[in-house]
């Protein structure tokens, strides 16, 4: 189990959407300090004195290394930053598909590699990766494919980080009510509800949390035919 109270936490993409909800819930549960990152933070973005805003581009090796050097006191890392590109794999812009994998797959891997030594030095801590019910679904183009890759990556990192006693928590959910999916006509979960579920799972020492009924149903469907896994969010 991971202790939230008094901990120092890094949340990538922490100034908007789901990341902002994570920051708020961490502070409510007594986190001592939260690094909230964005590619280009706006002036005055951190309101609480316990929040330190960092510029971070998860697709840039030098930016990630600089963040790890600055945030050497981190106990928990949230890999939350991501992009949504659901266009078809066969006809979608290849540059967009490549950018999706750079952000949603290689970005979290860069963060994990850079902060693993930091977490080890702090006694192990925790790494939280934000997946999706689309980790197991089909029909959502590059976004779903990238989340499937991240799920596999997380499961392997869990094994590799076990020796240094780092808890690795994979988070699966449908659609949180954020700016990123504002135009998607589906039922959405309040970000604060997601944040509470994730921090509860982290405190329990869980390896995976399925936030909503739709996600639990889709994972259960993995034992059936692949045709039953279609979830389309793009055109």
Helix content: 25-40%
What is the general shape?
Answer: globular
Name of the CATH class: Alpha Beta
CATH homolog superfamily = NAD(P)-binding Rossmann-like Domain
Cα radius of gyration in angstroms: 17 Å
What does the main sheet amount to? 7 strands, parallel
* CATH topology title: Rossmann fold
Q: Sketch the topology as an H/E string, one letter per element.
A: EHEEHEHEHEHEH
Number of helices: 6
Note down, in words, how this protein is organized.
The chain has helices at residues 17-28, 61-70, 94-121, 141-161, 191-204, 213-220; strands spanning 8-11, 33-38, 51-55, 76-79, 126-130, 167-172, 208-210. It has 235 residues and is an alpha/beta fold. Strands 3-2-1-4-5-6-7 form a seven-stranded parallel β-sheet, with helices on both faces. Helix 1 crosses helix 5, helix 2 (61-70) packs parallel to helix 3 and helix 3 packs parallel to helix 4 (141-161). It is globular, with a radius of gyration of 17 Å.
Task: Write a brief caption for the model.
It is built from six helices and seven strands.
